[in-house]
Amino acid sequence: TRARALLKQVLDRNPKSIYGLFTEAKFQLLDGKNQEGADRLRQVIDEQPSSNAHYLLSSAYSRLGQLDQARSELIQSLQLDPTNLRARVDLVSQYLRTDKLDLALQEAENGLAQQPGNAPFTLLAAEALLRLDRKAEAREKLADIKPEFLGTTALRVRAANLYRMLGDGAKASAMVAEAVRAAPRDIAALRSYVAIEG
């Protein structure tokens, strides 16, 4: 492609170009060359650390199954730019996957302090509270979300599943029906619909 040809020109002219190396790493990750991409990003970070480079390196490590390194890169990404929402969402999700529920809740609350009403952070905080067996607080969190903020199928499905876990069948049913109406071919939405309505 044209972009790759341009990248080759940049790196031929200046093999140490930070922009060139960063872009090359992105292409390597797109091509599934995760180790090469990770090595290239390490090189970039050694020369010029940035929140985005750490974030991208964390996704390379995740794909390589190196979750501790991935988490460490997300933390460094946020140290360089505390407003990097993608990094914070990924960090909270990782804490939830590894049952570090207090840390997940704390990071989700940090996100909400920066962006009050943010639906992904609200859902992540509600999930952490629910799994910490603080159901009343989880329910309050979910009640804070304005329906128009649940703009994607993934967010609607997540909300529906949380309502189901809280035992609120009517709310779960309404949410998942809306998700399926908006994206009738979405596998996750259909799966949740069957689980909730079945």
Order of helices and strands: HHHHHHHHHHHH
Nearest-integer average pLDDT: 93
Number of H/I helices: 12
The main sheet comes to:
none
Regions with pLDDT < 50 over 5+ consecutive residues?
A: none
Please count the beta strands (DSSP E, at least 2 residues each): 0
The dominant shape is elongated
Q: What portion of the residues fall into strands of 2 or more residues? A: under 5%
Derived from helix and strand composition plus strand pairing, the structural class reads mainly alpha
Radius of gyration: 20 Å
Please estimate the helix content.
over 70%
Task: Compute the separation of the termini in Å.
Answer: 48 Å
Describe what you observe in this structure.
- The protein is mainly alpha-helical and 198 residues long.
- It is 77% helix and 0% strand.
- The chain is built from 12 helices and no strands.
- It has helices at 2-13, 18-30, 34-47, 51-63, 67-80, 85-97, 101-114, 119-131, 135-143, 153-165, 169-182, 187-197.
- Helix 1 (2-13) packs antiparallel against helix 2 (18-30), helix 2 (18-30) packs antiparallel against helix 3 and helix 4 runs antiparallel to helix 5 (67-80).
- The termini are far apart.
Secondary structure topology:
Layout: H1 2-13, H2 18-30, H3 34-47, H4 51-63, H5 67-80, H6 85-97, H7 101-114, H8 119-131, H9 135-143, H10 153-165, H11 169-182, H12 187-197
